[in-house]
Amino acid sequence: MVLASALHFAQAVLSSAGRVALVAGTVALAAGTAPASAQTAAKELFGRVPLPSVEKPASHGFYSKGCIAGAVAIPVDGPTWQAMRLERNRRWGHPKLIALLERLSRDAVQDGWPGLLLGDISQPRGGPMLSGHASHQVGLDADIWLTPMPDRRLSREERANLSATSLLKKDSLEVDPKKWTDAHGRLLRRAASYDEVQRIFIHPGIKKKMCDLYGGSRANDVWMNKLRPYYGHHYHFHVRVFCPDDSPNCKPQQSTGSGNGCGKSLAWWFTDEPWAPADPKPGTKPAKPRVVTLNDLPKSCAVVLGDRAPADESLVTFTAGYDPQLARATAVAVKAPTVPKNNVPIIVPIPAVKPKGAG
Ligand SMILES: [Zn+2]
What is the pLDDT of residues 139-168, one digit of tens each? Predict the structure, then answer.
């Protein structure tokens, strides 16, 4: 496709009735920023929206290709959790997920885990991110650190800079017994026990440890099955919940099947195959990375991007006083998304073939 000085674009605009419409047209580049174009990487748009839409909560699309309307933020601090990496503004999710995280944090304390350190959930309107994560796009994924919460409130700087600790022995696929505690096992068991949870991504070494501890009893199969071995995930685990009932446009992920997942499929992770570098066939060029644009996402995501925003973040923070109707009644229009001028689209590499699922 040829890039001309005038680009075709789809821009969210507000009609006099306050409804969002998509219009096609051409644009001359303004100083500093430019409206979104059909070529704009979707992450440039979703990665810059500071607040969610105030429409009814709904997840649109798939975990790795979608967005969310009506997301709420988990408070920065709760009695049994602290949110980390606040500067990323990824504390947003479907109210069902946020409620579940708060519940898990309380249950975890009962189990002897001192509280949750929360990593990334989603951006205010979900969608692709400027850095990290293929998934976390529909407000139904959350990362939880495998580091216990300290018994004091962390400063903003500490939340930005503190490192999580890996549970593995250095250069090994094995859990380090000096770092592992019984409370880690109870935390993972608890997280996997909720009906709302579709799966949990965890490092194969940690799955192995859980199998050693709990795999002997068939009674544990249902929750053990939800612990899915995957790359990374030895500093944190990743909780994914099912598509909620209010989201007909949410695309469910395939069932994880039956059994505890401690057998052959786990053993495969301890062979060389999953860790071997991708070996392109001689004479073939590697697949060209492609920019994910708004057109690649469900159509409703363009509407979500242009929908009204709450007047203030506190109105959409998930506390006891959270009132979605008030947030809606006082909502404000948002400006059409703009991206830095002359921005070079950030390329999304298409990963080599990997086992099903996403980190
Ligand atoms: Zn994750």
Answer: 999 999 999 999 999 999 999 999 999 999
Distance 117 CA to ligand 1 centre (A): 14
**143 alpha carbon – ligand 1 mean position (Å):** 5
Q: What pLDDT sits at residue 341?
A: 61
Ion ligand 1, residues whose Cβ is below 5 A away: 143, 238
CATH number of 265's domain? 3.30.1380.10
* Statement: residue 228 has pLDDT above 50: yes
Instruction: Give the pLDDT band (50/70/90) at residue 350.
Output: very low
CA dist 356 and 107 (Å) reads 30
52 within domain boundaries: yes
Structural domain includes residue 348: no
Instruction: Quote the distance between the C-alpha of residue 34 and its chain's center.
Output: 27
pTM of the model: 0.84
SS3 string of 110-153?
HCCCCCEEECCCECCCCCCCCCCCCCCCCCCEEEEECCCCCCCC
pLDDT at 152: 97
